[in-house]
Amino acid sequence: MAAASPSRPEIISLFRSLLRTSRQFSDYNIREYSKRRTIDGFRLNKQLTDPSAVAAAFADGKSQLELAKRQVLVYSLYAPKVKSIMELNH
Amino acid sequence: MAAKLITTALRRTALRRTASLKPINLRPFSTAAATIPDPYDDPSSLTVKGVKISGRPLYLDMQATSPVDPRVLDAMLPFYLSRYGNPHSRTHLYGWESDEAVEIARGQVAQLINASPKEIVFTSGATESNNISVKGTLHFYKEKKKHVITTQTEHKCVLDSCRHLQQEGFDVTYLPVKSDGLVDVGKLRDAIRPDTGLVSVMAVNNEIGVIQPMEEIGAVCKEFKIPFHTDAAQALGKIDVDVDKWNVSLMSLSGHKIYGPKGIGALYMRRRPRIRVEPQMNGGGQERGIRSGTVPTPLVVGMGAACELARKEMEYDEKRISMLQERMLNGIRAKLDGVVVNGSEERRYVGNLNLSFAYVEGESLLMGLKEVAVSSGSACTSASLEPSYVLRALGVDEDMAHTSIRFGIGRFTTEEEIDRAVELTVKQVEKLREMSPLYEMVKEGIDIKSIQWAQH
């Protein structure tokens, strides 16, 4: 199902799904990185105008979403019992 | 469509259920009765080596190793689960797909350093690559070439290989470094002899993070037609590494410093002009005879994925890590005086910050920083209490060398972690200085170096 050019609601939906998935990571550092990289990634690509570049970035984003969903599962299976110091209050 | 809904629902319940499952026993195969309480059993705190901490420390030791990026892990897992073939098996699908993956990874590594895939040999790590480069080259050319030039701040494996060569009868020149950690290219030029077989200078130092003048050294080596080897384990994926611009003949690369798996590295060997080495691992002739042994497909795929990620993320990471380093340095300097940055401040990799705190004892500083995972300048290479040889080569005083701390900032470090580390370090240093009689004397204006200590 090749997307000719993703529409704005599709892009926003992808962004929201990526953020939602990122929030589920059990590891503090990976979780923060995922959220930050998603926001920065979409912000950097906002200026893209060439439709093939936009479609390529969208496809890349979709594959990253699939990857993130798999890795959230894997990380949760092996999450250490003791959390990172940063997640406990001072 | 219905199938998709069902699988999503199943996966969600699996996630919920596994989150509430009893924690997996991490040692299911131990047959001995557990008489020592497992330090990981108690979920509220962690007691290891007699120290109790409430959570896993924040990790600021990126030069020792780096966490595996989830995108790298995702690339590696299929090769542990279903695609487990030996890449050298020529007769079935398992071998063919494994070989294809290895060749793709080879291309990914080569692209990061602007080399051809045919010039990359996979090894077990940068240490092995360094051994092959130093000992292998000299052994191959031992009829005509008897001399090696290296620096005093090299990694232990290079220095040890050189010492081994010395015992075999070769000559080695250990070039001194300036007080900022950089090599004097003039001194290098003077040290070159007609029978010099190799010049080995590491690109980015693992302890102090200084970036050596690679292009100038490469130009000198090209002029005298001497093979140039560099240990780029810390430089790969962090600064712009180009084998043509640097004119290197041999380059050691490491997987686990660039968010890849441990146990894998690579060696770049130039084809034009061809550099030849004597292999250190003999066997079935894999990796063009340079390094025999089955190529570990999952690790190689991981290293390739890590290199490709590094190529895409280098600019973003560098900007961010540079911002974090400034934040840390300014945060510490704002609250403390007597803080010295070891190594050149201009020519350094931004993710490595090696600081010495005056009038503070090193071991007690580290003991107080139990919630931050950092390394001291000395512990990296030896188990003895001697201060690091790298800091000694820089001419740092013994007492300052003992109090050095190396902060390693990486892709996954957050601003909150930096702020927390600054807060903890400042608190600990202030506490120690308050107890220190030497600091009291300094505050009164007495020059410590002029004191004649009386003997009882």
From TrEMBL, chain A:
Any GO BP annotation: iron-sulfur cluster assembly
Domain of life: Eukaryota
Domain Complex 1 LYR protein: 10-66
Pfam families: Complex1_LYR
The protein's name: Complex 1 LYR protein domain-containing protein
TrEMBL record, chain B:
The UniProt record lists the keyword Transferase: yes
Cofactor(s) named in the record: pyridoxal 5'-phosphate
Keywords: Iron, Iron-sulfur, Metal-binding, Pyridoxal phosphate, Transferase
InterPro entries per UniProt: Aminotrans_V_dom, Cys_deSase_IscS, Cysteine_dSase, PyrdxlP-dep_Trfase, PyrdxlP-dep_Trfase_major, PyrdxlP-dep_Trfase_small
Entry-linked SUPFAM superfamilies: PLP-dependent transferases
Superkingdom of the organism of origin: Eukaryota
GO cellular component terms, A-Z: cytosol; mitochondrion
GO molecular function, one term: iron-sulfur cluster binding
Gene3D superfamilies found in the cross-reference section: Aspartate Aminotransferase, domain 1, Type I PLP-dependent aspartate aminotransferase-like (Major domain)
Enzyme class: transferase
EC number(s) from the headed UniProt entry: 2.8.1.7
An example Gene Ontology biological process: [2Fe-2S] cluster assembly
HAMAP family: Cys_desulf_IscS
Similarity comment: family membership: Belongs to the class-V pyridoxal-phosphate-dependent aminotransferase family. NifS/IscS subfamily.
NCBIfam families in alphabetical order: IscS, PRK14012.1
UniProt-recorded name of the protein: cysteine desulfurase
Lineage: Eukaryota, Viridiplantae, Streptophyta, Embryophyta, Tracheophyta
